[in-house]
Write a structure and sequence with these properties.
The protein has one domain (about 10-94): NE0471 N-terminal domain-like. It is an alpha+beta fold and about 90 residues long. The mean pLDDT is about 95. The chain is built from three helices and six strands. It has a three-stranded antiparallel sheet. The chain has a three-stranded antiparallel sheet with strand order 4-5-6.
């Protein structure tokens, strides 16, 4: 089941601020980077390697269709696609 798109998204260096229909969440850049969904990060997790987000700085969020965002970090990492459902779950975790 996919989550509905948010009403708005704001990128700050420290967090992605998402306004959902019923709530607002600010997901820390460090948490987003630690949960990167790109193939190299997923592969590292499968090998048992931890992905750390310390020092992560968010610089941009680009829409991917109507279902997700591609996040860009200051260190050049920009491969992860974050579906709305994942962003909603991370917002509850943060």
């Amino acid at each position: 089941m996919s989550a509905e798109a948010p009403l708005s998204v704001e990128v700050t260096p420290d967090a992605l601020v998402v306004q959902w229909a019923e709530a607002r969440s600010a997901v820390a850049a460090t948490l987003l980077r630690a949960h990167c969904r790109c193939a190299p990060c997923q592969s590292a997790r499968l090998r048992g390697e931890a992905i750390f987000g310390e020092g992560a700085v968010l610089v941009d969020a680009l829409p991917v269709g109507h279902y997700a965002l591609q996040l860009r970090f200051a260190d050049g990492h920009e491969r992860g696609i974050y579906p709305w459902q994942v962003l909603r779950a991370l917002g509850l975790e943060d």
